[in-house]
Design a protein that fits this description.
Layout (H helix, E strand, L loop, with lengths): L6 E14 L3 E3 L2 E3 L3 E3 L7 H13 L5 H4 L12 H14 L2 E11 L9 H12 L6 E6 L5 H4 L3 E12 L8 H6 L1
Parallel strand pairs: 5-6
Antiparallel strand pairs: 1-4, 1-7, 2-3, 5-7
Helix pairs in contact: 1-3, 3-4
Bound molecules: magnesium ion (MG).
Magnesium ion binds next to strand 1 and helix 1.
């Protein structure tokens, strides 16, 4: 029986290694730093955690099943494009985003100057106002891989609400669904 409750909640987590010779991209914003995140795509751990939270809210699997890192289509991909594909799936299921809350764990660099831009980029893709997208940043107090500046990790929570109408997927999105 389908629940009459209009809400679904999902969580997402991601971690990527920090290495030389890669750009540091978080929430679609490129941040000047001597290290960047290693990955098949642009390794945007914030976009990935939010993508996994959206998929988790609707029990649609995870980012690895939808966008496998063996698929050359996603090599060096802009992860906001992956997030956009996922948002289309959410809307096709008849849901919209109520709010997002994310925490980035990074010892360096200082991310405060870039958080507003990250919120704007994410909100645009999620088709909500930036006031409903929270992005926070903190250090790991020098502990573990994040504290050694060997990695950056992200936790995200998203709340979805059933919307008035289902938006159909494009033929291209159907193939990926
Ligand atoms: Mg990832």
């Amino acid at each position: 029986m389908m629940s009459t409750c209009p809400f679904r909640v999902g969580t997402g987590y991601d971690i990527h290694r920090l290495v030389p010779g890669r750009p540091l991209v978080l929430g679609g914003v490129t941040i000047p730093y001597e290290l960047g995140l290693l990955g098949h795509s642009d390794a945007d751990a914030l976009a990935h955690a939010v993508t996994d939270a959206l998929l988790g809210a609707l029990a649609l699997g995870d980012i690895g099943t939808h966008f496998p890192d063996t698929d050359p289509r996603w090599a060096n991909a802009n992860s906001l494009v992956l997030l956009g594909h996922t948002m289309a799936l959410v809307m096709a299921q008849g849901f919209e985003v109520v709010n997002v809350d994310a925490s980035i764990l990074a010892e360096r660099p200082k991310l405060a100057p870039y958080l507003a831009a990250m919120r704007e980029r994410l909100a645009e893709v999620l088709q909500v106002a930036p006031t409903t997208v929270s992005v926070k940043a903190k250090t790991n107090e020098g502990l573990d891989a994040v504290g050694r500046r060997a990695a950056i990790s992200v936790h995200a929570v998203v709340l979805l609400c059933r919307s008035a109408q289902r938006l159909p997927l494009s033929p291209d999105q159907h193939r990926e669904a």
